[in-house]
Amino acid sequence: IMEHHPDSNKVALVFGASGEQGRAVLDGLLLHAHYGKIYGVSRNITKAEKLLAEHKQQEHIKGRVNLIEADLAKEESIEKVLMETKAESIFLVTTTDMPPHSKSCKLGELAEYESIKKFFDTLVKVYNKDKISRHVLFSTADNVERINSMYEKPPIQPLEDGSVVANYSGKGRGAEYAMDLLADIDDLKLTLITLPFVHSNFLGAAAPLPNETQTEWMINACLGENAIDMFSTSDLAYLVPAILEKPNEYDKQNLRISAEKITMGEAASYFASLFGKDIIYNPLTFDEMAAMPNLPSAGCMAQLGQYIADPRSAHHIALTEKVMFPRKPQLFKDWLLTHSDAEELTNVGLNLDPTPITTVCVFGSTGMEGESVVKGLLKDTRKSYRIRAITSDLNSPKVKELKALDPDRVTIVQANLDDEGSLSKALEGAQGVFLVTDFFNFYHTGKTGFDYRKDVMGEVDEKGEAETDMEELHAKNIIDACEAAKTIKHIVFCTMEDINEMNKELNLGLADSDVGRFDAKARAAAYARKKKLSCTYVLMPMYSEHFFGLLAPEKRIDEETGRESIELAVPMKEDEPLMCMSIDDLGKAVANIFDSYQAVAGHEIGLVTDFVTVTEVAEMITEVFFHEKTSDDKVKGRCVEKRDVTVDEWVEARGTHTKDLGAMFGYFSKTDAVRKRRSIAKTLELCPDAKPFRQWLEANKTNVQFREKLGLR
User: Fold this and answer.
1) How sure is the predictor about 562, in pLDDT bands with cuts at 50, 70 and 90?
2) What is the model's pLDDT at position 160?
3) Closest Cα to residue 144, out of 114, 170, 115, 118?
4) Which phi and psi (to 5°) does residue 497 adopt?
5) Which residue from 54, 289, 594, 651 could staple onto 284, CB 3.0 to 4.6 Å apart?
6) CA 218 to CA 351: how far, in whole Å?
7) Are 66 and 29 within 8 A, CB to CB?
8) Which of 178, 183, 179 is nearest to 116 (CA)?
9) Are 477 and 521 in contact (CB under 8 A)?
10) Sign of torsion over alpha carbons 653, 548, 493, 541
11) SS3 11
12) CA 366 to CA 399: how far, in whole Å?
């Protein structure tokens, strides 16, 4: 299964491939970008090969990244890499050799600055030879030494060697030099990203340390009491491809990146809540931090703490969200859960409760998604899940079918989604929750006269629709109940995009519309992100099963000629692919999420197994269901024809309840936007046996209902 067809002419080059930032960027270029060749550069290729082999994305990296050994301190080494790879997109990150790897912090800073200067000088030299346009994205930092000197009374006192935050200032000076050097060279684009305090520091210098009896842990740092900017390095996998995609838009800009602002006290409380231990923040003075015996370059780290805690070092959350859109930056609470089993935390006595999720509440259990999840959990062979299938109607036929799947393991639980006590009772004893809400349930039952914004929030919104408001309220009620319950370890929320937000931010050119079944879920997901909950957000595509129902080909008879034909009418243009996946695969994916939920906490996963055009669908249905080989090996049979139809025509033929589906097709037609949030590779990680559309059709060739629609026996 191919996620996309890489452009073989596009080449990317990643310096620092063996480091934390470089590995994240490699992930992003492989999974979220379109490059024919990707090169990873390291000054120690043996170390790089070992680290990449151990890396979590090794299956994606293996065989797709060419490793090159090069030294940024040597001009000939840089020139060789640039000339041989001819890379147009370059990610550059450098490191500061601090004591004991250099004689002093200042010498380490100077060496780093010289290597950066040498890289950009060589870049210009190579450009003058080959005239190849290039875009360099440089992960830099502030020149704190220059900023500090601007004050009559500098807030940060230099160390004995004269350095001021050496591991920042060398990068900052190098960035300033590069900006000046490339200012008038239009073909050489430069974007700077300045990262704040990164979450991985909590696995190093800011890791909680225990007392002798391991009854209390302290995060020792001189970062003050105010909120500071934070960011997860793993999000470079989304950030860097997004920037490299738009070299002109981000040329000669310094993007000050941040996911959130939280205090160190809040970070400590997240640790305490997750691990069930007494973990506090111990705010150190500069002198206390500088005197720490086991911290390399403690003086420099103390200076760094002073600078990060200073409001003048602020970064920009809104800018980060805009660049990363539609992805959401990872928050610290989610990062902590995904790293809860890190060796660095285990070594200091912080071990997460290993109790697995074995009891799952399935909301929306009688719908397509809920039924798939119930079946997927029951079929999981790793553990024997007990399932609480939540419903409002104990007498529905679907409820009886669910119970019959496994009477011993499936318990039917009636719950009122408007009642907090009813929801609390439904969640008793469960560790996992699958949440999906059904817009059409409210539409078809005719529950109107309720406006969430008006009746609950006290606001008047003429655009608000009763069905979407009720759906949003119910989702929020469930989320609140999960937060109140002390046993819930993880939620899998089957949600959707906010199409109007996507339209606005990505300039899709769609008419403004209220897409009820999308937007209500998106608003509820945004609500869940603000809670202290472990949650994975699953975006579903068009279900392949819809081609057996809502989108099934139809027999038509021409009134003039009497000719009978089978036509497939879907309001998509000839070359616009639809994303699709079988609903059956959702249950398998959800079971895998619950099995290793820590790894995907806070993640949004857009499920999809194939992108197919309507023409391709018509051809596949024809080949699978109608073509037969004769005795002389010739193919005979009827043909499914594609019929062009507008969204309005399609909606009119199916009734008013499909209006939001019409808007959905308008969104689906924007393939590049859709693919920003969907990944075949991620889907196959969760569901390795998921089938592309053609194979799915062949596996369902005997579907009686569909064969009847096609006039087959």
Assistant:
1) confident
2) 94
3) 170
4) -75, 155
5) 289
6) 16
7) no
8) 178
9) no
10) negative
11) strand
12) 6
DSSP-based three-state secondary structure for 693: helix
Look at the block and give the residue holding tokens 């009119």: 652
Give the list of residues 6+ apart from residue 430 with CB closer than 8 angstroms, or none.
Answer: 359, 360, 361, 388, 485, 487, 488
**Among 81, 78, 74, CA closest to 37:** 81
Task: Please say if the pLDDT value at position 692 is more than 90.
Answer: yes
Name the token pair of 521.
Answer: 């879920």
Per-residue tokens: 193:
């990203």
What are the C-alpha distances in Å from 335 to residues 198, 261, 330, 534, 672? Answer: 10, 14, 7, 10, 28
H or E element in which residue 690 lies: none
Amino acid at residue number 212: E
| H runs (alpha helix) in 415-537 | 420-427, 439-445, 466-484, 499-506, 516-529
Q: Decide: helix, strand or coil at residue 217.
A: strand
Query: Which amino acid makes up residue 196?
Result: P
User: What is the 3 state secondary structure string of 493-521?
Assistant: EEECCCHHHHHHHHCCCCCCCCCHHHHHH
Looking up tokens 């550069």, which residue turns up? 41
Distance CA 332, CA 257 (A): 15
Distance (Å, whole) CA 82 – CA 78: 6
> How much is the pTM?
0.85
Which of 343-352, 422-431, 551-560 has the lowest average pLDDT?
551-560
Confidence of residue 633 (pLDDT cuts 50, 70, 90): low
Distance of CA 625 to CAs 144, 554, 697, Å? 69, 14, 9
What is residue 40's DSSP assignment? Answer: E
Look up tokens 């259990």; give the residue: 365
The span from the CA of 158 to the CA of 303, in Å, is 8
- Quick one: which H or E segment has residue 450? none
Packing angle, helices 420-427 and 466-484, rounded to 10: 50
First to last CA, the chain: 31
Contact 50, 17 (CB under 8 A): no
For residue 299, what are its two tokens? 């003086």
Q: Determine which helix (DSSP H) or strand (DSSP E) holds 374, and give its type and residue range.
A: helix 368-379
- CA-CA-CA-CA torsion sign (441, 444, 446, 451): positive
Instruction: Return the axis-axis angle of helices 397-405 and 368-379, rounded to nearest 10°.
Output: 10
User: What is the spatial order of strands in the sheet that 260-262 belongs to?
Assistant: 197-198, 228-231, 260-262
Count other Cβ atoms within 10 Å, centred on residue 30. Answer: 21
Tell me, what amino acid is at 199?
H
With bands split at pLDDT 50, 70 and 90, how would you rate the model's confidence at 217?
very high
326 against 237, higher pLDDT: 237
Q: What is the pLDDT of residues 28-69, one digit of tens each?
A: 998 888 888 999 999 887 777 776 666 544 555 556 788 999
Q: Which residues pair with 640 in a beta bridge?
A: 566
Instruction: Tell me how far the alpha carbon of residue 351 is from its chain's centroid.
Output: 26
Position 23 scores a pLDDT of 92
Angle between helix 659-668 and 516-529 (nearest 10)? 70
Q: Which of 277, 295, 377 is nearest to 336 (CA)?
A: 277
Q: What was the pLDDT predicted at 130?
A: 96
